[in-house]
Every structure is written in C-alpha cells, then in structure tokens.
Amino acid sequence: MSGDTLVLDLVLAGLLVFLAWRLLTLSDLFKATVLFIVFGVLLSLAWVRLNAPDVALAEAAIGAGVTGALVLDALRRLDARGPADEAQPLRLNLPRLVGALLVMGLGAFLLWSVLSLPPGWRGLSSETAAAMPRSGVVNPVTASLLNFRGYDTLLEIAVLMLAVLGVWTLNAEPMPPAEPAGPILDVLVKALLPPMVVVAGYLLWAGGHAPGGAFQGAAVLAAGGILLHLARPFNVANRGVVRLVIGFGFAVFLLVGLTLATLGGRFLELPERHAGILILMIETAAMISIALTFVVLFVGNARDNAGRDTS
Amino acid sequence: MTQESWMEGTLAAPLLGAVLALIAGRSAASAIGILTALVGSAASIGLAFAVSRGGSFRYAVGGWGAPLGIDLRVDALAAVMLAMTGVVGLCISVYAVGYFRGKEAEAASSRTNTGPAWLFWPMWLMLWGGMNALYLSGDLFNIYVALEVVGISGIGLIALAGGSAIAAALRYLLLGLAGSLLYIVGVELLYAGYATLDLEQLRQRIDAQPSTWLAAALMTAGLLAKSALFPLHFWLPPAHGHALAPVSAALSALVVKTGFYLLVRLWLDVFAALGTEHVTTFLGALGAAAVLWGGVQALQQERLKMMVAYSTVAQIGYLFMLFPLASMSGSLTGALLLAVSHAMSKAALFMCAGSVLAVYGHDRIQSLQGFGALMPMTAAAFALSSISLIGLPPSGGFAGKWMLLSAALAGGAWWWAAIIVLGGLLTAAYLLRVLAFAFLEPVVASSTRAPRAMELTSLILAGMAIAMNFALLPLHDLLHAGGAR
C-alpha cells in the first residue's frame, strides 16, 4: 500500500466517523438528512477502496440515493403536521454512556478479531473461480447472487415485496400536494428520464460481466420514477396492475426455480447452457419489480381524486 | 413421491401461494390462502413421514453444494418443526377465513370496507414460507435471510390491527433489526474464521478461538431477543396482545419457536465442541426466570389477550430448560413435544380470545361472566388448551413436562424439576381464573355469534394438544430414525 492511498483511507475513515457523530447530534433534522446522504456517498467510496465496486454501486444508489429520498420524504410528511424538524439532540446520560462503552468494547473486540485472522485469507475465492465457467456469467458477484446463492436472493426479493405490503397495510398517507412543478423540474424530467432508463438497462446488462445488476439498475430506474412523480404526481396504489408488477420479479424467479426442479434438476439449478439467459431473464423481472417497489415506498398509499382510500 | 419432492413442496407452496394471493387481490386471496394451506401442510406432513422412513438428508439448492452454494438439511428436528407449522398453520388459515368473513359482515353493516385486511393472506403465507425456509436451511446466511422474511412479514401482520398495534409493530421492527444485526455480525465472524456458512462443515471445523466465542455470543444475543426469552421479552406482550387474533395465534404459537430452534441447532450441535456447559446452564436459568416472571405477570393481566401473551413468555422459558438437561436421555423428545403441544394449545387460546372478542366486543377478564353458556365450544377449547398448558394428564403438555421432569430428576437436578412444577402451578392459577368465569350466570344476553369455523377450529386444535399425549412414542421413533443431533 503506497503512502498516498494510506492517507486517503485514513481521511475517508475519519470523515465517516465524524459525519456519523455529527448527524446523530444535530438538532436540525434536515441538516442531519443531508449529512446522512453525504455519509452514504463517502461509504460507497470506502467500498471502492475495499475493491468491492458492486457493493459501492449498491450503496451509492440505494444507501445514499433511494434511502436519502425516503428520509427526505418522511421529513416532509412530518413537516406537514407542524414544526417537527427540531429533534432532541442526543445528550450523554448514564444509560447511553453504558451503551456507548459496551458498543466501543464490542468494536474493539471485533477489530482485534479481524486483525487476528490469518494473513492472506481468501475465503471461497478459489471455489468461486473454479465454478465460474459453469455459472453463465463472467462477474463473480452476479454468479454468486443469481446462481451459487440465488436462493438467498429469491428470499431477499420477498423481503422487498413485503415492504410494499407493509406500506399498504399502514395505509400511509399520500404526499401532501406538491408545489406545482416549476419549468426547471419539467425540463429536468424530459432531459433526464430517457438516459436514466438507458443507464438502468445498461447496469442490468453489465451485471453479467462487470459491476452492476438488478438492484443497481432498479435504483436508477426508481430515481427516474420518483423524479417523474415529483413533476407530475401519479398514483401507485394497491391496484391490480401495480400488484402484478410488484409480484412479477419474485414470481418469475420462483417459477424458473420450480420449473427446473420439475424438469429433473434441483430447485434453482440453472443448466450450464442456459444459465446466462435465465439469469438475464430473472434479473430483468427483478429489476422492474424492485424499481416499482422503491417508487411505492416513496409515494406511499395515495388516495384517488375523490379522497377515497384506494386500497 | 421422493423425500426431495416432499421437501420442494414444503419450501415452495407457501411462497408461491403468497405471490399469487398478492397478485389476485381481495376477491381471491382467501381461496388461494386455504388452497395453499392445504397443499403446504400436506407437503410438510408427507416430509415428516418420509424422514421417519428414509432418515435425514441434504439437498443442494441450485446444485452447487456447500460451501459455494446453499445446502438444506432435513432431519427429524426440522421435520417435527415443519409438521408442527403445517398443522397449526392450516388451522390458523381456516380460522382466518371465518374471522375475516365476520369482519366483512361487520364492515358491511356499518357501510365501511375492511381496508387492507385481505393483505393478511399474502403476508401470512410469506411468513409461513419464511418459517419453512428457516427450518429447512443448513446455511447460516440463508437462515439470516429467512429470519428477515419471518420478521418483516410479522411486522406487517401486527400492523394490520391498526391503532396501538402500530406502535407495537414498530417496537418489534426495531428489536428484530437489532437482533438480526447481532446475528449477522456473528455469521460474518464465523465465515471469516472458517470460510464456510454451512452448519455441518462449521461443526467439523469449529475450535475455541476468541472470535468464535464472540460470534457465538452475538448470535445468541440476537436470537434470544427474537425468541423473547426473559429479560428480552418486553416487546412480545404488546405485539402479540394487540394483533388480530389469527396473527397473534401465528406469532405466539409458531414464530417464537424459530429462535429457540436455531439456538438448539447452534448450542446442541454446531458449537457443541466448544465445551458449552456454562452456556447451557445460563440459557436454562433464563428459561427458569421466564417461567416464573411470565407466570406472575400473566396472573396480573386484566385483558384476556395480554394474559395469553404473557403466558407465551412463560412457556418459552420451559423450552429453554432443555439446554441444561440436554445430556439426559429423553429431554429432547420432551422439549419438542412441549413445543408442539404449546403451538397447538396457544394457537387455540388466541383463537378463543378472538372469538370472545367477536361476541363480547372486549376481552376484559372480569366481564366475561358466563362465556361458557354463550359459547360452549370456545369454553371447551379453552379448557382443553388449559389442561395441556398446565401439564395435566392426558395431554401433550403433560407428556412433554413429564419427560423433562424425569430427565431433571435422573440427573439429580432437583432445582430444574422444582421450577417445572412451580411453573405448572402458576399456569393453573392464571388459566383457571379465566375459566371460572365461564361457569357463572351470563349477565348480558348477546345475540352475536362467533362464526362456526372460528369456534370449531379452536376446539380441534385444543383437542390435538390433548392427543399429543399419545405422540410420545412416534416422536421418539422419528427422532431416532431422523438422526437429529
């Protein structure tokens, strides 16, 4: 490791700790939210430094992007009910001090555990390398997520689906009526939306051989959807079409797995010859569902024009 | 059918049913729910029979095999939990059809709609699928994802009740996330140490490294919070006590068992080589404290559902007394029998509470005079469930407690035996207190009836809890054949 990158790493790590501390102690929730987004961006840089570009992309798109938008959205809903943007800043009292000491002790123990690992730890990289030719893709991260451990990803998509059901269950209030979109937002939507769709498609396709994939593509697609919603509010309530798209990714993944099992293989055993195309199919369906999931999380359970509950 | 196809059915049926119910929407969700419940429970019972004949087996999802891929492991322990989930899950589904039909009739007469109540079906089926995935899994990270599916669907289901249940759901969410975080940090540490996530490979490679102990401690803390063992039980009574009746039944009867099951897997199998005597004693002591604390709290509750919820806190404690007694023969059979009969009787009790709520419009214990005359079937179900929970013969609760008691006495551990007996007395006190009201003269003549399906299902479940008395030998044989470690 050269001296320059060591300095960069130290600055990055220091900044992350500082930002985390600041955003916890701020009383202005809006400033804290902005710091949270900055924190997410810097964290994705840290992932880049750790040679995990896939995680970095996901962190930037979902951790900073979509989550940041959700927190801003939540803040706006709080605002609509009165001055709620003043929070009690965290003050140190005895239980918190004990908690902080415990967490710090745990942190030290973790650090020591990591440092005591044998040098040159390679995990499962040789097993992964040996299996790559049979995986249908070139990017080992995609191979792991969609093929070697595709079953995990299937259940993770189920969790995202459940998040939408949770929002519908809570009957979350729709966004308060937005200010009429100014001409700038309108132009922005027109200029940005087409390239965003293209970028999402590219990320999906790139996942086969380079960092990218369904989650990253979905985050970009969802950002486009949220932008569009801000300019021209639309309704993604609990309706047949919306439910079909939300369930689509999970259903396709599960049915592919079951079909392969009935054709004589095991559940989710992708045959070597068709693995590439099957993965692309599963990822496309998943990307569409996940993108709409994020949009639904942002928009909430909108009521129709008559003010009736549309669930 | 082969073992593998029973297993695939058990795994896939609830997941497929969940997404179909979601896509189909309000009109068809309950029909899909019942159909899925029938298929899912049949598959899990078939799987239990297949394991008792053919022994335990592994299944490499995706065909890769551990450590690169995910291996499922189906042994007798998993098969018992899956069959329990299947049987109780089917009953909960039947009950839910009647329950929500009642709600709809109520809503129609007041010209409102039931709102998102039908979302019960996709979330409940997904919860079922998550539990099945968890019991089938032989992989630490896969178990984490299954835990998330179980947790998030549970939160949505609690929130269905609206009002004060939403705060309880939020607390459940935060606690569940904290538990998951602790668990996953432990998993990462183990993966860093042994380069595998597979339970079996881990068991072979494990040694007493400091990081292994740290991982074990973190995972245990996370799972204890999820299984609501004293003193981490505080989130359970509000969550289970405020949810809709079929949801409370599912959470209290089935979901709390998932954490217990994982801790059994970890401490009696994977970590066994670490020398775990003080840990198992510690878990047993927490269990004993839970039995006493939960019992005393249940005695003081004024609302029926809260009382039943505190009873769960106590009954979970019984299961954890398996840990210090595990080396005694028959203790695992006893604890599993106790777990299964608790699932049946606790689901039945929450169903009874739901039926009482539907008729009385409240569940204040003091004002339930004469519910025996108004709703004889529900009162009978309540009485039968009480017999099993208290541990009176003949019942599954009796047989299970008897096995644990003999294990304790055979090992000369009279103090565990004393707790088991004392807990039974407490259980009798709080359950008989409610039952006494059944025999009083009814004060109000209520014209509302609980839907027949609801009352009948609770009675069937309570009857099964009694019949579990005779499941001791088959269960013992299954554990023997399925090589549960």
What does this structure look like?
The complex is a heterodimer of chains A (311) and B (485). Helices cover 71% and strands 0% of the residues of chain A. Chain A has two domains: 1-90; 125-311, no CATH class. Chain A is mainly α and 311 residues long. The termini of chain A are far apart. Chain A is built from eleven helices and no strands. The model of chain A is unreliable at 303-311 (pLDDT under 50). Chain B contains 20 helices and two strands. With 485 residues, chain B is mostly helical. In chain B, α16 (376-390) runs parallel beside α19 (452-467). The mean pLDDT of chain B is 92. Chain B has a domain at 276-480. In chain B, β1 (57-61) and β2 form a beta hairpin. Chain B starts with a helix and ends with a helix. In chain B, strands 1-2 form a two-stranded antiparallel ribbon. In chain B, 64% of the residues are buried. Classes of the chains: A mainly alpha (311), B mainly alpha (485). Chains A and B meet through α4, α5, α7 and α10 of A and α1, β1, α4, α5 and α6 of B.
Question: What attributes does this structure have?
Answer:
heterodimer; A: 311 residues; mainly alpha; 2 domains; globular; disordered C terminus; B: 485 residues; two-stranded antiparallel ribbon; 20 helices
Short description:
The complex is a heterodimer of chains A (311) and B (485). Chain A is mainly α and 311 residues long. Chain A has two domains: 1-90; 125-311, no CATH class.
Major pleated sheet of chain B: 2 strands, antiparallel
User: Could you list the spans of chain B in which at least 5 consecutive residues all have pLDDT below 50?
Assistant: none
Task: Give helix % range of chain A.
Answer: over 70%
Class inferred from helices and paired strands of chain A: mainly alpha
Helical amount among residues of chain B, as a percent range? over 70%
How does the helix and strand content of chain B classify structurally? mainly alpha
Number of strands of chain B: 2
What is the beta-strand fraction of chain A? under 5%
Supply the number of helical segments of chain A. Answer: 11
Strand content of chain B: under 5%
CA-CA gap between termini of chain B: 26 Å
* Biggest sheet record of chain A: none
Q: Counting H and I runs of at least 4 residues, what is the number of helices of chain B?
A: 20
Number of domains of chain A: 2
